[in-house]
Design brief:
Oligomer: single chain
Helix content: 25-40%
Strand content: 25-35%
CATH class: Alpha Beta
CATH superfamily: RelE-like
Amino acid sequence: MRIEWARSARDDLRDLRDYIAKDSPYYAQAFIERIIAAVESLPAQPQRGRRVPEADRDDVRELLFQNYRIIYLLRPDTLYVVTVVHGSRDLERRPIKPWEVE
């Protein structure tokens, strides 16, 4: 199974890195690398992530990493990461859900 990152997920990582880097570029890069490593561990057990409650679909899953939700779609041969979002964000209020955009 291969991993693909949606542009929105790549943008999330960049924004997160930039935010943390205001205080510490070193820890910003280390944090992003740990998120990427967590995602890279998923193909061995792609259903390890829980179902996203807001989506109520078996193919929309999330891996919790510290205070962040890494939301991904399961496809036959691909794990498609759609967003990395802070756990305090209310996805219910978003007019367009991350898993609805590709």
